[in-house]
Amino acid sequence: MPHPGRRRPRMRGRTCAVTAALALLATGCAGAGGTSFGGGDALNVLMVNNPQMVELQKLTAKHFTKETGIKVHFTVLPENDVRDKISQDFSNQAGQYDVATISNFELPFFAKNGWLHPLDDYAKADTAFDQEDILEPLRESLTAEDGKLYAQPFYGESSFLMYRKDVFEKQGLTMPEKPTWEQVAKLAERTDGAERGMKGICLRGLPGWGEVIAPLTTVVNTMGGTWFTEDWEPRLTAPEFKKATKFYVDLVRSHGELGAPQSGYAECLNNMTQGKTAMWYDATAGAGSLEAKGSPVKGKIGYVPAPVERTESSGWLYTWAWGLQKASKKADDAWKFVSWASSKEYEELVGATSGWSNVPAGKRASTYANPDYRAEAGAFADVTELAISQADPKNPGTQPRPTAGIQFVGVPEFTDLGTRVAQEISAAIAGRQSVDDALAASQKLAEKVAEEYR
């Protein structure tokens, strides 16, 4: 969504490019999943294969179908594949799938193209769903520029800094309640080698707009940089962008994980779980795995807000949410499924069957007031809620910008631009080129995108 009162970007007939660009989305989620498809009266749901969705798939027949009589057939795919299939089916309005998992990145484009069914009337009529309980930043991020609501969150996340409390104590170190990046760099130096095989910090270096670009862009924001000015001037070679990128690259090269250019979310999660890193800056969703039953580091991790420099906060905002295809002929049943899957009732079900650390949280205020959830997720609950509540996609940095988005630029071309820039940054992390050369090449890529919007 553009900033209120600012000139909207001119698309120059970019509708076809929207579909093509969205098909190039690339991130680093991992996990096992299968596919199934059914026709007839069954509801067809297309979703990403992350653990929370796999859990949902297991619980649906026994609970949702039993209660409503509505059968659900799932197609479950890795993130890159599911985005491609969703873009194809929704853009063609084929109606093969009634519901799909989309994010706050795609929603504005999907809504503008008329691919999604507005949900305002359903949410208003379904008082048990309690729309006001959904955290405000998520409600806003799933509302398009026409003011209509087009999706409901399954879970939400921001980003924060995770660190080993026991290691810090042994080293005589104190983590500030609200650290700056300069403080984090010094702490990474002090904890590098604190235990055998332990590095000071883990930061994503894996190419992909949803991998290295996500955390890096939050560093750029808080250090005063931006990808584009509000008039679409690319700023990747500006001093602030260079400073942030050099800082990030130097930090991960000096005190980051081994194999950093191939390390994404999954690899850093594994490093933190296995005691190979003293700190990790990444998604708040990672805390549930670190604190899960059987985790080697359960109870050893501290959580503080995303490091800052020139801004009050710097955590990103992301949600996997349920969107209804406009062409679906089963919209009423689809809403019943979405209402159940994003409900307080479903969170209670997961808490009772799988443990509260596995609840798809980050979306409801009531979750953070729930004593059962707090008993198990108390170590990170408050920091997560604060990070999400402070996220401001419209103004995440120190200067105006042309679109909403914290860890991404809210245009469909960013799927390709971000991934290609990520390849340049990853090469700098690997030592194959300088940051200056990486950003010079990236600036040229950004200029081509800017030409479409000026």
Automatic annotation (TrEMBL):
InterPro entries: Bact_solute-bd_prot1, SBP
Signal among keywords: yes
CDD domains reported for this sequence: PBP2_TMBP_like
Pfam families with a match to the protein in the record: SBP_bac_1 (PF01547)
Top-level taxon of origin: Bacteria
PROSITE patterns: PROKAR_LIPOPROTEIN
Entry keyword annotation includes Signal: yes
Signal peptide: 1-32
This protein's UniProt keywords: Signal
Record's protein name: ABC transporter substrate-binding protein
